[in-house]
Amino acid sequence: PPVVAVRAATKVYPSGLEALSTLDLTLDAGRTTALVGPSGCGKSTLLRMIAGLEQATSGTVTIDGEPPESVATRGELAVAFQDPSLLPWRTVRRNISLALTLAHMPFDGSRVDELIELVGLAGFGDVRPAALSGGMRQRAAIARALVTQPRLLLLDEPFGAVDELTRQDLVTELPPLWRSRGATAVLVTHSISEAVRIADRIVVLSPRPARVVADIVVDLPHP
Ligand code: ADP
Ligand code: ADP
């Protein structure tokens, strides 16, 4: 699994706002790291830079020494955001299989069906997203992120938009799916308790520009 290296990364938005300033951070291979901190402190900016969706103004972000774009092009990196962004005209199964197509991977119906089961959507492969609850859509979005077997998984508040009981279920059931495969994962969350339950390490950022103010090893047996 890949190591993510953030080196002296600075991000200044066109408005002049400096979201990150010479940030250094190394994320360990095969671990799940949670980024926490107050709203607006730069967590999503950092995650988007690791995903190759946002360029650093100066400094570098590399994944095993490569630019994130190269890793993403090979389908080895997957992202899931708070908004599941499923295509409404496609069934759950075809939303998930689209990720294989976009990563130039062969269609693998049995892998898609296996993931549908693993995320707890058995029986819902043929329905469209409008027929699903928020938590079920989030499960579908996680299945779509995992179907390519990414070596690096980037999650931005993936459980943010679901009710508390559903969140408890998702937090218990979904992380083992990437942890057991040894993927490196980064989770942005507002919730320390969620971070403790999911992550091996918690990096706390302070706002404007983001600075690492605490770096905590979580020494709990995770499922
Ligand atoms: P969160 O605090 O949950 O990360 P925000 O409401 O801060 O969410 O941001 C939501 C989206 O709006 C993000 O994709 C971010 O890039 C964008 N955004 C936030 N602030 C600004 C801004 N000042 N100008 C333009 N886009 C922004
Ligand atoms: P967080 O994820 O911790 O809530 P963000 O990374 O979304 O923080 O935002 C960090 C800061 O950068 C905030 O002040 C936000 O308003 C600003 N910001 C985020 N995205 C944009 C954008 N696209 N354009 C301008 N400012 C932005």
Automatic annotation (TrEMBL):
Q: Which residues form the ABC transporter domain?
A: 4-223
Q: Does the keyword Transport apply?
A: yes
Which organism encodes this protein?
Answer: Microbacterium koreense
Q: Name one GO molecular function term.
A: ATP binding
UniProt-recorded name of the protein: ABC transporter ATP-binding protein
Range within the parent protein: 17 to 239 of 269
Keywords per UniProt:
ATP-binding, Nucleotide-binding, Transport
